Amino acid sequence: MKTVLTSKKPLPDPELPALKAELLAAQGELAFAYQQFDQALAPELVECCIYQISAAKARCNYLIRVIKERSPQPALSAEEEALWT
To answer: How far apart, in whole angstroms, are the C-alpha atoms of residue 61 and residue 53?
Structure first.
């Protein structure tokens, strides 16, 4: 009797492309928040920019974690990973 071994690879999560697109958008928001911070002069605006940067970083970190959890292979390149560690 012949036994055939088949490897069952996990199916890719159908939400991964949307999560990766959301991560790219969040990274764009973070870059924009840094640009605003660089141009802010009033103390109130500087404080606002700091909150925006903090929120964008938190969102990016969350999305990176979710993408890693749902991906069987590395979701981000070493260069992308280095940006958030």
So the answer is: 12
Q: What is the pTM of this model?
A: 0.69
Residue 24 structural domain: 16-83
- What are the distances in angstroms from CA 14 to CA 27, 29, 36, 81? 22, 24, 35, 22
Residue 4's H or E segment, with its range, is none
* Residue 70 to residue 48: CA distance in whole angstroms: 33
d(CA 79, CA 41): 32
pLDDT at 64 over 60: yes
User: Is the Cβ–Cβ distance between 59 and 25 less than 8 Å?
Assistant: no
Q: Is residue 39 part of a domain?
A: yes
- Which of 21, 28, 58, 22 is closest to 50 using CA atoms? 58
